[in-house]
Design brief:
The chain is about 45% helix and about 10% strand. By secondary structure, the chain is mainly α. The chain has one domain (about 5-170): Rossmann fold (3-Layer(aba) Sandwich), CATH 3.40.50.
Amino acid sequence: MQWGTSWSKHFPDRKAVNIGIGGDKAQNVLWRLDHGGVDGLKPRAIVLMIGNNNMFFTPETGVAAAAQGVKACLANLREKFPEALIVVAKILPCHAPKVRFYEDILLTNAEIDKLNLGADPKVKVLDLTQDFLNADGTIKKPLFTADNIHLSPEGYATYAARLKPLLDASLNR
């Protein structure tokens, strides 16, 4: 997910460092975390959005492995930044019901729920699934670009509207 100008539009008073790269899987983020990708940073809040690209490999690895990748990223960040709030964003729905990718996202998010990540008071789990789905389970097309994966400007606005209160509650104390 590439926030780009959407971040400065929706969070004009919040500085951000994006260490994500298009196509990243959890293991790519873990590598960067362990090889200087966050050296020198002192974040007060971290938003972890990872896992969508792991869905390409769930037939071989299973959805539990994808959820464990999210957990490993969180553990690494928690170790490096014990005082920071970490918002773990569950994987956004994409494509359509009955498409393996869509179904694996739902299953992976259920596995993430089982990990009880929110038991840590400095971790907030952000589940935007219902914000991005219609009542019949199909994705809300205006929130996505034509590929049904990446967010449109309206999708980023929806995301930001849910993320902002979590950041404000933690950072404006």
